[in-house]
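Here is a typical protein record:
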Amino acid sequence: MLACPNCQAHLQRTNTAHGIFFDCDRCGGRTVGIGVLRKLFAPDVLNRLWQAARENPQESQLRCPHCTKRMKAVLVQYSPENKIELDVCQTCTQVWFDPNEFAAILKEAPKPEEKPQEELSPEAKAILAEHQVAQLEKTAARGESGFGDAQPEEGWQYIAGIFGLPVEKGAPTVQNAPLVTWSLAAFCVTASLLAFGAWTAGIPEWSFIPAEWSRHLGTTLVSSFFLHGGIWHLASNMYFLMIFGDNVEDQLGKLKFVLLILAATIAGNVLHWASHPASTIPCVGASGGIAGVLAYYALAFPGAKVSLLMRYVYTWICIPVPVALLIFLSIQIFGAYIEKNSNHSSSIGWWAHLGGLLVGGSWFFGEWIYRKLDTGTEYRTVEKGK
């Protein structure tokens, strides 16, 4: 549920003929996407608004209801006599209107020109109808109904789908190069490949062994992140890190991103140790830390989706990321329960995944609570100053 950046009340979704608005019933504010605004205002008004947002370094006191980043405070001239300060989120392409601002601009700002529609000939209408029917048939054949376009957008994503990997869709554009994500992936690949050549020495020596957790002064709690048990183990983990890590790094910043992965990795190994304190089986892999990234990603970007290929029927389905997270969490809980109540250990680190998920979710909600308290303090300060 989106929260009003002014008063923290829940924003109500409003469907209009032009598109979707999110309105605050308490204070009267409203957030609207740039795409919807283009249907309401002349292009030059929005071009000036967006250009000012790109050039203006001044941050607003308000946070975007969608991504919770601070918006830009932008002064825009919407008529020859009038200017107004609006709050713009460049990441989500959303504009926040304080009470009465939207109505004032809508009343006086120039409107987009309406292009006259030419009447189609009967032959053209028939061709158009046939095309629409063909498109509907293609949509039904791809299994897209109700889920949006489930098909991948790039060729390499089909290969990922064939190998059973999810394809990311609808995530925000990354604003900064994910240097930490790339560096972690490079270190993992290098360390794992070197260890593959000396398996009997490299992997066990720096893996995490619950019964010997204090080896190397406890550093195996972290060093095990960079080692993997095989090519597929390495490739799949690096895929998840690269696909989802860039957005989380962009959202958190580089230092917090490192701390999130570090905390998730350690928590995952600690939880694995707590469930197998006497085990002497070496544990390796980045999946505990990556699970923390996945949990944070799903909560921070609830509008993103993943496409999955149902290989036996070759049909793509599209799932909201929060739903995918719940499915993944359920599988980990079930796997951990089965392992705990059986007499054998699994090759999958169920408990490490759960530890990582716990850290990722806790990190997100901790930030969310802090932002609510911080924004509430700012709002009360502004109210007192009025």
Confidence is low (pLDDT under 50) at residues 139-148, 377-386.
